[in-house]
Write a structure and sequence with these properties.
This protein is of the alpha+beta class. Helix content is 38%, strand content 12%. The protein has a single domain, classed as Factor Xa Inhibitor. A hairpin with a 5-residue loop joins strand 1 and strand 2. The longest helix has 11 residues. It starts with 9 loop residues before the first helix and ends with a helix. GO terms for molecular function: structural constituent of ribosome.
Length: 65
């Protein structure tokens, strides 16, 4: 019996992306509503993507294939 390929989790592919060097990029949470309560500095920082913490990278890479 042939070994089947592992399917990627489509929810994870929408949220995470691999960089050219193999790191995992993600967007920040807390960006959908309640912007009056957030400072301009906080809103500016939330706009930019960031890298996943190294403790989560192995698990996320297995989900995104």
């Amino acid at each position: 019996m042939a070994k089947q390929k592992m399917k990627t989790k489509s929810a994870a592919t929408k949220r995470f992306r691999k960089t050219g060097t193999g790191k995992v990029r993600r967007n920040h949470g807390y960006t959908n509503h309640m912007f009056l309560a957030k400072s301009p500095k906080q809103k500016r920082k939330l706009r930019k993507a960031t890298l996943m913490h190294k403790s989560d990278v192995k698990r996320i890479k297995s989900l995104i294939g």
